[in-house]
Amino acid sequence: MNSRLNILKSILWAIVGVWAVVSVARFVRGLGATTNLSDGAPWGLWIGFDVMAGVALAAGGFVLAAIVYIFGLERYRPFVRPAILTAFLGYAAVAVGLLYDLGLPWHIWHPLINWQHHSVLFEVAACVMIYLTVLTLEFAPVILEHPIFKHRIFKTVYNFLKKATIPLVIAGIVLSTLHQSSLGSLFLITPGRLHPLWYSPIIYVLFFVSAVGLGLMMVTLESLLSGYFFRHKVDTSRLAGLGGAAAAVLSLYALIRLGDLAWRGVLPQAFSGNWQGNLFLFELGVSAIIPAFLLMAPRIRRSIGGLAAASVLTVLGMIGYRLDTSIVAFLRPEEAAYFPHWMEFAITLGIVAAFGLIFIFFVEHLRVFEHHDDDTATAKRYFPIPVEASSVRDFGQRSWRGPAWYSLVAIGTAAITLVFLPEHIRSGDLHRAESVSGVRTIEGLRLTRASQEGTRFAVPAEDAMAQFAVPGADPVLLMVIDGNRDGNLVLFDHESHRVREGGAGSSEKECGVCHHMNKPFDRNTSCYECHRDMYNPTMIFDHTSHTAAMGGNEGCVRCHRDPDAVKTADNIRPCYDCHADMVADGSTMIQAPPKDGLRWQAPGYRDAMHGSCMACHEKRMAADPEYYSAQFVRCDNCHNADYDTELRHLSPYATLSQAAGGE
Hints:
Elements: H1 3-29, H2 31-34, H3 45-57, H4 60-70, H5 80-101, H6 120-144, H7 152-163, H8 165-185, H9 203-230, H10 236-263, H11 275-296, H12 298-301, H13 304-328, H14 342-365, H15 375-380, H16 401-420, H17 423-427, E1 440-448, E2 455-458, E3 474-481, E4 490-492, H18 494-502, H19 508-511, E5 538-539, H20 543-549, H21 556-559, E6 601-602, H22 605-623
Helix pairs in contact: 1-14, 1-16, 3-5, 3-13, 3-14, 4-5, 4-8, 4-9, 5-6, 5-14, 6-7, 6-8, 8-9, 9-10, 9-13, 10-11, 11-13
């Protein structure tokens, strides 16, 4: 019995059980419920690891294919099949990971028909899709060697694919070179967002060279792990050759990276002592410098321990390089700080575990690892079918309890995961509690729109209103409506609305159009005092203050008059019995107190603001369509980010997140 393999499978199936539950939550409840992603941090772990690092980890396929088929180094042929399988499963995992990261995953096929030839992402998508097809064709002969594919048609396909090996290998090398480097090209447009120690005008070269070194070390690590779990001999002499090549590539990567930083005068930042500099030195040391020095020593690279240490360091370090570039060293607003949710980790680990099990399945049922003593005989046969359709000689006894045990493990971890799912996912209440902040009042300018009717507003970047006289712009006090301080704000001219509703001498009655309900001992109560959560309804009744005001428990009967009923909100006196003036005069939302009293919950702040503003705009437009244009009821009438060109030269004025709104 292969206990090592059984333990590994049990662990992987346990992770798959967690993955299955979290996957359902992701696709049923959406990204917002299962991730910590936001508009300020739209790329997270699933892009940084599942795509950026995942594509690099699968680079061993094209590297080994080039070594054997292009450079003719036949002694490394035993590593080709496992490398191609790893690449095939790696790219398939990347595609699966993208399904999780896309807001509309069913649109993943759109690049096939919507060609955005100016986009680097389109080039990456096209190359990855084509290369995944190439890998499928490259690995297909291994599948067709299985005894179930004995029919003549399968043998014909097998022979055709074997003859097409060289063209497929060349296509794979070209496609891999393109998209491995293009993943780095994505960051060429972010010189102001990516830390200088990671940004580089030749970052695409760094991504490609590092992928080659990582591919060699992934093949090495894969061989070591396979030898350990499947109990077959590790060919350290051949792996030492790959290690020597990896030492040269990793040294080249380190020299290019350090030389680029020195050429641009950025290298001193690595020794500044701050966390970015320390992280850079640690990452480069782990990913390239230390492994390269280890592999340069013949004694170390010929030992299993030395190869294991160098390969693990390189793999972890290069994963860190991708994560640092896409997440850690990427500048984001303070309010958009990002750290992956535990469910993001569960998805990533689940994808790795699932494809790890598929790898094991292929190894157990196909001739993935060729035996060293029959390499020549295998190469001469068009349709090699070993007596035992397995790539290793002894997998141990197979117990009928195996599938049952693995199913039990997966179901058990899935059940445990259900218990630990956040309440908002289980209940369907997708919005987490998010308290609302009150409005702010600032000085701004009212400007005439250049391309549309009406006016728009701008806010100075600093308190310098008196220093600037802008033609056609009037100073005005503006309310900043931004309840959750996410920058998706609206600039609201309160005074013009007040005058419009009731004239210069408007009364409280006109104010009631918007301020439709008052808290006791208050007039024109601000919206955020009742609508206290950004998305979720909140109870407007404060039980603690009422209990204190009415003498503690002795006052319960003043509201809960039925002594036999349970004292809940369902059997209290109507609020307006005591607070007759809660509904504001002139309110268009609440014309009269409801018969059963004011006991409901106030809707979320966003829904309340939209319901109030949009309903009023639609009503005005319906009453006077000739005066109000279609823009009046559009979202960007208030959430306005359509900058007029004449605003761009006004340096003291705010950028995109600081100017919005209009009338």
